[in-house]
Fold:
Amino acid sequence: AQTVTQSQPEMSVQEAETVTLSCTYDTSESDYYLFWYKQPPSRQMILVIRQEAYKQQNATENRFSVNFQKAAKSFSLKISDSQLGDAAMYFCAFFYQGGSEKLVFGKGTKLTVNP
Amino acid sequence: GAGVSQSPSNKVTEKGKDVELRCDPISGHTALYWYRQRLGQGLEFLIYFQGNSAPDKSGLPSDRFSAERTGESVSTLTIQRTQQEDSAVYLCASSFWDRPNYGYTFGSGTRLTVV
Structure:
């Protein structure tokens, strides 16, 4: 079974600075998808960024980018120019189509943004 | 609808009572998922629907938990004889059946408190 590990329960960053959240996963599959979701206090999970494992190019969405290291099974999220609204729980998730057909989540990292 | 709708938003119940949690997915999303999120924890998979059938119920923690879906639309998660350990946020998500690898759209969840 696939597992996702987020080793940083909490992180903090100064407004306008850059922070990187770590995620590692375990799978024997070669074709899969990885996601970062943000969960603000409103509880709604918001998709931040998505990576297809067969693509070597790292995904980017505005201030959010990933460092995808397939051999190392690592998928970190970099947030540039951090804003107060970025404060939230961030969850890394794994999906393999053809397997369990469900997203598997890590335990999350709580990000605090200091003004 | 425009988004995934869950009701009630919050529910307080006495130990031993039954509760029903409702999820209205995005119109046209035939795949529907239920997750449980205990305080400070990640998302724990409960059950997955494809149309009105549930190919994967592996996450339901006990026979007190059941779920159904009708009309390839609304889903209800029922917890019988609630226990204090059932206290959690219950999140519902939906996706197109052929594009779960694009990520799910989540609702805002139901916070269940068993007293």
Summary: The CA atoms of residues 18 and 115 of chain A lie 13 Å apart. Chain A touches chain B through 23 residues (CB under 8 Å). The two ends of chain A are 41 Å apart (CA to CA). The mean pLDDT of chain A is 93.
